[in-house]
Amino acid sequence: MPERPAPLPWRSPTGSPSPSPNPGRFPVVGGDRPVSGPSRGSASVPVSPASGGPSRGSASVPVSPASGGPSRGSASVPVSPAPTGPQGPGPSDLGRVPPLGPPISALPAPGDAGPAPAPVASGRRRLPVVLAVVLLLVLAGVGVVVARPGPVAGWLGDEPESASNAAGATPEPNPSDVLAGPDPNAPVPTPDGVRAALDPLVGAAVLGSRVNVSVADVISGQTLFAKGADDGTVPASVTKLATAVTVLAAREPGYRIPTRAVAGAKAGEVVIIGGGDPTLAIDKKGYYPGAARLDDLAAQVRTALGGTTPTSVTVDGSVYSGPVYGPGWDADIPTGGSGGAVTALMTDGGRRDPGAEHGAAARFAEPDLAAGKSFARLLGVPTDAVKRGAAPAQAAGGTPAPGTELGVVQSPPLIRMVDIMISESDNLVAEALARQVALARNQPASFDGGAAAMDAEVAELGLPADEITLSDGSGLSRRNRISPSLLTDLVRLAASPDHPELAGVFGGLPVGGWSGTLDERYRTAPGTAPGAGSVRAKTGTLTAVHSIAGLVTTADGRLLTFAVLTDQVPGGKETAQPALDRIAAALAGCGCR
């Protein structure tokens, strides 16, 4: 393995605006991600929360987040314990954001940490970029709203801070740490130490005959453990890490997906053109916070039409092509509530009830027509006057002329949609984001086009594309194959100061024993407690397939990236998931030297 150059120097950011509250069930991105520039490799890396953050975390709070959070299905994400005493946070504390320690990017390069241990032998081509310093803790996996330096506020649609606020507000003290930050000067675990800790665990019978594992040091890139690390394995929802990285690389974090309305060929005909925004809401009661709304679009249309009365609605979803259900999906996925038909126009991720809690929910079989009928009702058009069709080309004549834009609404920025996809493992959002990769690369917005575009984007990022073969962007397909070592490379690349636009991957990562799909894990299963608050990872589950990949901080404070993929599990999640969690917890609980 060629010797890697030293990490790039850390550069201090400028001032940061004050945070705003998280209004919904999903994490809101914060500026403590290293996303201070929209163009690849061009920006400095922002650091931890600046002064002026909220006082809610300034009192003494428990270090371990293992208690006090709501159940996984709760509409609120447990994010910052307020000062509550020894019993842990109460219900009134939900929806707050945990203050964080300094990100790794704010700390000196580990030049005095001693020589790196010898690498584990591997024949694969390793990441050909400088992978220094990751932003701390993956933002505690709960979507941090602590500071928004640089253009992050612009990506999120925030207004600039007024001069009076900037001048007149009294700065509040920095919040105290809830989740301790890693120490870049901590000793790197040795391959022998990691092997001693993991060998007894990766061979657990409950994980089946194929347990493929990769563990690497984030700062140095040192491979610490490899078992079938380069072998393509069914990843399930861990696929969403690849979807997140590729869409942020292809589209940039601030990109928004439009939903447009234009005049039809006939007088009174309104054509609604779906751009692929799965978060679109009907009104203010939508499922996704901050979503674009059909009632806003309808108001624009009525104004643009003036005295012309709408008489019909045509739904144009032609930006998408191909089947609406993915290849390799289990037969029950279209009706089981975790997936649904993928169309360019839908509301609330195709949910029939936007008020449903997170998890499986009944979906429309034809979400494009359902959205079109909702739009028709808002315009006062009978629902039997809704049909599929194509928007006309712009032409002269008529008032308004055919093809004239009557209104447009925009999705939340992609950086927020990535948070939603990862934190809640939202399959419909994932499929929409995969199609955005395809559109950005001038490929068909279909399952095949999205998969091919994601593979190409991985190669363009300098990663071994021969270790990823995809059929969808959500991980519902059993035809997907990703190697564990490619997943750890993806994480390290997203941590690189050369790619600040990719750090949005980290904001939604669930935290062990604390949030998202890890909320109920690392709590009670024997041997998993060290992972509570230290493991931040994306999970995946299909029948006989269980996976986890992300980051973990060792007992010495060293930040590692890991991936464990199993696709021949003999039992259910009740035994497989604790066995996976014990592997990550072993890394969290040892110095492994």
What do these coordinates show?
The relative contact order is 0.18. β4 (269-273), α5 (294-305) and β5 form a beta-alpha-beta unit. The chain is elongated. Helix content is 22%, strand content 11%. The longest helix has 17 residues, at 573-589. The protein has 593 residues and is of the alpha+beta class. α3 packs antiparallel against α12, α4 runs antiparallel to α8 and α9 (427-440) packs across α10.
> In what order do the strands lie side by side in the largest sheet?
2-1-12-11-10
Seen as an oligomer or otherwise, the chain set is: single chain
Approximately how much helix is present in the residues?
Answer: 10-25%
Element order, helices and strands? Answer: HHHEEHEEHEHHEEHHHEEHEEEH
- The count of β-strands is 12
Could you say which overall geometry the principal axes of the C-alpha atoms support? elongated
* Poorly predicted runs: 1-169
Category by helix and strand content: alpha+beta
Helical run tally: 12
Q: Mean of the pLDDT scores?
A: 77
Task: Outline the biggest β-sheet.
Answer: 5 strands, antiparallel
What's the N-to-C terminus distance? 22 Å
Share of β-strand residues = 5-15%
Compute the CA-based radius of gyration: 24 Å
